[in-house]
Amino acid sequence: MLSNTFSSNEGAAQRGYWKAICEVRGPFNVSAASSGLVGACRRVAQKNDRIGAYEQASDEWLRATYGRLDDALRRAAIAAAALDLDRRCRALPKSLSSRLLLGHKRLAAALTAGGPYSASAFTRDAAFVAGLAVPSGAMTVFVPPPSSVVSLPLRGRRAAGQVWRSVGQTNLRSGLAWIGQVGVRHWAELHVDDRYVDDFNQEGLIDTYQAAAILLASRPDIAGLRGSSWFFDPSLLQTSPGLAFLRNIAEEGGCRFLRHQTDPEQVAFALQRSPSRRRASEAGAYTPTCVGMYWTRDKLLDWASRRQPVPEGPLAPAA
Ligand SMILES: CC(C)(COP(=O)(O)OP(=O)(O)OC[C@H]1O[C@@H](n2cnc3c(N)ncnc32)[C@H](O)[C@@H]1OP(=O)(O)O)[C@@H](O)C(=O)NCCC(=O)NCCS
Question: What average pLDDT does this structure show over 31-46?
Fold first, then answer.
């Protein structure tokens, strides 16, 4: 189990967590902070699958409980929840323990590094300590809690959006076939963690897809893995052929792509680090476009088992 692997580094990570807890002002109950933050994250995950939802729910809970909100309090609450994360993840497949160990190491380092706690880091850390996210390379795989009737409106809205796009971009028959295949099930979701972009490469992505396959093998209630980004756009094959692997690996594994609405944040991401994409955009030769990637569980498991057998195991984060 995870605890066997975690124990070798447990001391270092735990020292980091306690250091973060000691920085908080005023009374602070570790176990109440842990259960409060985790509960808030797990509840919101049933209703909202935006990446920022964990930040919002955690902040609301902290403000309501402590009457204030600051980075020391956020860090302490994350550290408190991290201390008993292993217990929540007891049922995770053993083969994911190295990713969780990586998550602990990174988290302890980030919590003790000082500086402002960015919204994007805080929301990812909250999902991780709630047992709703597994880090891998530059990516994090977000895994929703087991479906319940509470999540039905969210799942229904998401499914309707997929049918709508599918019909608009292909035809009615294909849209209906798609919904027949995936239904209104939850999806696991892929997000880049900008703190670890140095690990952004083909090898890391393959590792992430394998981690997702291990999770999905133990979660038949999840339709598959999805992601939405400018980097799944096929026109990158011309402007940034070095990023072709992002689309190619999933495409070869039989995943489906649908165009999404491109927001200003995605446009900024696409141009942020690349002078050549900026030049192409200014010349009108490249328009950042956001594309959704939908890799159904059967196809992802099939792809992963062709690379290496996906270990079977009980489900991820306990409810
Ligand atoms: C996603 C991301 C990490 C990919 O980075 P990447 O693998 O370096 O690939 P990019 O094409 O973006 O690289 C940007 C520039 O760095 C250069 N570069 C990449 N690796 C390099 C290396 N090892 N040495 C020197 N230059 C390098 C590339 O040549 C490229 O410039 P160019 O396009 O003008 O040729 C990066 O684009 C990023 O951080 N974007 C903003 C955040 C983001 O998009 N998040 C995802 C939201 S869904």
Answer: 96
